[in-house]
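Let us work through a complete example step by step.
Step 1: write down the sequence.
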Amino acid sequence: MSGSFTESFADDGKLLLCVAENGHSFEFQCSETTSVESVMRFVESVSGIGLSDQLLLSLDMKLEPQKLLSAFGLPASDREVFIFNKAMLQSNSHPPSPEDVDLQDVADALPPASLHEHHPLDDASDPALKALPLYERQFRYHFHKGRTIYNCTVVKHENCERLTREQKVQQRAVEVATRNLEQYYRVIYQNFLEFMKRYKHQHRLHSDLLMNFGRDIEKLRSAKIHPYLQTDSRKCLLDFVKEDNLKKAVENCASSHRQFENKIAQFQQMFVEVKRKVEELFACRASLSMKNLEVTVKDHERFIDEEKSIMQSLSKDVNTVKKLVDDCMSSQLSSSLRPHDAVSALGPMYEVHDKNHLPKMQACYNSISELLDFCKSKKNEMNNFVHSYMQKITYVTYIIKDAKLQFPVFREAMVRQDDLFADLKLVRGVGPAYRACLAEVVRRKASMKLYMGMAGQLAEKLAMKRETEVRKREEFLKTHGPFVPRDVLASMGLYDTPTQCDVNVAPYDTSLLNIEIADVDRYAPEFLVGLHSKVASSRSSLTMSSDSSLSAEPEEIGIDTFDKDNFDDILAASELIEIAGTSKMEVENAKLKADLASAISRICSLGPQFEYEVLDESEVENVLKNAAEKTAEALQAKDEYEKHLLLMLKEKQMHCDSYEKRIRELEQRLSDEYLQGQRHNNKDVSGLNLMDEKVSEYKAEASGDVEGNKTHVSGSEPMDEVSCVSNLTSKQPCKAREGMDENMVDSSQVLSHPLDSSMLESQQNNEKGGKDSEAGEMGVFLSNSSTAESPQKSLDDNVATGRGLDAKHSDDIILELRNELMEKSNKLSEIESKLNGAMEEVSNLSTELETNQKLLEESQMNCAHLENCLHEAREEAQTHLCAADRRASQYTALRASAVKMRGLFERFRSSVCAGSGIADFADSLRTLAQALANSVNENEDDGTTEFRKCIRVLADKVSFLSKHREELLEKCQNLEATSEQTRKDLEEKKELVKTLYTKHQLGKQANKEKISFGRLEVHEIAAFVLNQAGHYEAINRNCPNYYLSSESEALFTDHLPNRPTYIVGQIVHIERQIVKLPSPLSASASPEAGKTHHLGSDQGSRTLASSSISTSTSATTTSNPYGLSSGCEYFIVTIAMLPDTAIHQQAS
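Step 2: predict the structure and record it as tokens.
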């Protein structure tokens, strides 16, 4: 675990923790199985925020202490965890303390100037030589000062970056907290909108119930029920409810409705206030921006770069003056460079240092200092902003929660409102329910009829399948029966026949009311449904536009006994097989009745809810858009079907025109050939004239018949045409030719045979079509039939007339004409087939030609593209060749330079490795530099020249370092001696400080506890110091020789490992004694020997309950434990411990 202030975080297994209060960041080493509580304990250890005061957020999730990090998808490289201090979120919490950055100033960090240090050149007689050490010291001081300024500048700039990073962390923390609040508010506000939507729907419904209650009553009163349903107590729909109890219910509902409306208004106002506060909170976040500060901190890096360049210049100048001084000391100055020249060169350098470099560095330092102050002020502003913003978030969250807790109350109130308005809803729902019941009766009757029709169709289909199976079995037995014995066939069970299938439907719905669809509007008018509001007009169009979809969906119209496919099967079967009650018209009428009744029932059931349903603008637009699209699709389908019908009629008309044209051509050819045959015979002129007249009549009759048939086909209805054709073809196939004799039949066969192939193919194609083209085909059949019969009749009349002249010759002519017509027709067919083949071949050739043309164009384009690519490749190859030549020459030069440099490095390596000591190393480098300087070549490259210069500089610096090392060794020895002497002085000073500290402590204790240093009295506090003899002697100014008793000494020292240096306690007893005289005979009693004074007082909390002082003369004292002179008086003092002494007893 390590704490750091980092902005980016991408290491796996680490969790970045950010404190929103101050912007500090920490990295926590963890895994997916680490608990959140462990993270919180780490945060407590590094930030001081208690476990109970921590609130952890990551994105929009709150981290629970009892869960693992894996439950929240942590740790993750792109996720941060923000810690909020709950204690700082309270309204009474103290504001954050100002940001404090404790940095050392430049003046404090500067080293002391060493301008007065002695230098060997200070004693030189030449003033120029004397000035060189002074310049060296000044330059060194400038360098150290510049380095100090640079270091302080870098530290301050790093603090600026740190403060900026912390502000960015706080900015992200604010964004996370804002998103968390925004998500919470969005959920609550969405709940509020949904609640208000339900409330508005309920409010409209209840308001309408209250407003139109009287009208609803009148509706029910005016609506009479069906006579079959009427009784003595039920005449109208109003009798279904109890009218007496409704007036009181209306009053209660109206009162509750107004009260609930007022409560909802207050609730709405609360949410308006919540929304205003949230918007204000989000608006104040817009002022939080870090871009300008980041740009400013980044821009101030140029001051550090500038100081760095100045430091390089100062370092170079110091090295220069040091080299001059060393050269002067070693008397190695060249003849061209004298001390006066060196001093004159150092003067301008000093001026540049003093007037340019150092002031510029100071200005850069001042700019960074101002930037740090600005960052500190911005950081303080950010801390205050985060503090106040988080307090506002806490307050807004509290009022949102308060509003959230009111939702269940209002939802329960809405439920109570619905229960209260149940009676009024009952009044409103009677009319629609009654109308829906009547419509359901009609629907069930229609559904029953359809069901019965399906049963009849099923029985008929099964009967037809049985007859087919019976025929198959009879044919099988007729085919194979003669070859197999009958008993064998019977044993195999081949004589069995399928049984009859009886489809029986038991009667149901026999008790339905005997009404039709018209009776629904009669006994339950449409006004009972209640679609009376202003939305009824706007929604009527939508209902009408969706009627087709309602009728096309069996699930919605309520007809569950059959589907659309079955209904189509019924209609198809009803056209082929006529069954009583299941004709196409009856089935379709039953279907339409069921659809209409189902739609009426559906409208009645959805009316009250649909009328007051609240539709959003988007939903209304979608409904209107869908209705418009369906209407447009229906109109487009109608237009397309109309065009389709027109195309069909146009196609039929073209067929009729082609047939008419072909018939006229055949008539013309027949007439021409007949006339040629008559001219060829040239026997009877009158017969020829008669034939011309007949032919003319035949043409006129044929033209009239064709026109009449065309009019008949175009003017008649398709269904009538189909029925007429079916009757003509199926029932009376031979009536058209009943009155014709054999010659007329032969003639009709001759005339009808040479129809061209195009007419036959068109008829075959029309016969292969479905029922949609049946009417057109039959119409064409009629026109062909009538047209073909007319020339037959004319020609037969002609032939019958000419038979009297020359019947045999006419038959020969007709036979020849027929043969020639057949040959011509065959030739024409062949020519047409060849022409069609040629046209197809031409079409194929043209297609191939177009394809080849496209391929040719593509080939030409590809060739042009390939040529361009070839030119580009040549240019690129030429460029690469030039580049390769240039690089080859460069490589040759580089290789030569590398070989030369390798030789130089070998010489350098041998020089470095030759010597065993520092002096030898310096000499070898100096020798190498001299050798390289002597081997100068005019054609050598820059690398060799730079290497030679580097070797020379390196040799000079190594020489300088070797000399400097010797000086440092000597200085180290001197410093060691000085350090030893300083250590001894320091120990002595330490002892002195210890003694002074003890005295100081005693003085403080005396001042604090009021220790008596004068005449000692009982109950006073005394201090005893351990003397050299090992006795504790009281500190007393006037009366010496006060010693601590052995009992008191044991009381204070028994529990200590060492004897303390002093003891402080309260005096409880003083005993006066005198040292024994040397001669025992000279012992005499003192005048005061018999005087004894006792002083005592009770002390409840002391160790001794009473204290006394006594003075006695002990003439028979046998010892002198304190080493006093004979006859000297001394005092033995008994003391008690102080209760809470503040003096620390120190071990001796």
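Step 3: interpret the result. The mean pLDDT is 74.
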